[in-house]
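Narrative of activities, Objective 1.

The group set out to show that a structural description can be obtained from nothing but a protein's sequence at a throughput compatible with the screening campaign. Below is one input-output pair from the validation batch, recorded exactly as produced.
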Amino acid sequence: MMVTDNKKRTSRADTSLKAEHEYICGNSGTGKSSYIKEIMKGYKRIIAFDPDDEYGTMPGFTRIETARELVAKLKAAGSGNFKIAFVGEGKAAFEFWCECVFKVGLCLAIAEEIADVTSPAKAPPAWGKLIRRGRKFGVKICAVTQRPAEADKTILSNAAFIRTFALGRFSDRQAISREIQLSINVMEKMRPLDWIHFARADLTKTAGRLGQRRAAIPINDNGESLQKGPAKDTIMKA
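Output recorded for this entry:
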């Protein structure tokens, strides 16, 4: 079932749009879902690749299981608003979802559990196209994984922002610490709900904890606060 139309897509390209793709990683229960819910508040057009069936019961979402249903729903929505949870599974379903997202544009695209449908090698074709060209069509990708070491590196290196929560495996901590230029020792001390945010445009890092009211704290490569004053301790303590 084809969903691409290159001529129509090219006519809508806007190279002035900012890169906003985001890479979100962390163990189960560390805060990823809460953070994604905050991001979703800013969007009226959302389509999630939802292999674990997490989004279908959220307010406003339509749960869809088949490719045919997905195409029909998107066609019916047209340029209007939608919130869709595509409960697909496997690489073929993921690639189809990517093609659909690229076709409709102007949306928040949440790709859950990308380590199950990609590998550290070259990104699958439709996923790679969405990463490299989706920005020009108003697509913001949120790529979500528990296993950065086993997931596609194309989105990791192209993400404008990386939000990491606690990671249990050394290989996963190593993959993220290398990408955001942060001491792996800092990541080893993170606990559930702790987070570190990396902005690629200026290479800045901030740290915080979900549920705390205090503002995010700018940190250096060793996790030390860059704020002036007496509180210049390491952010993540043992």
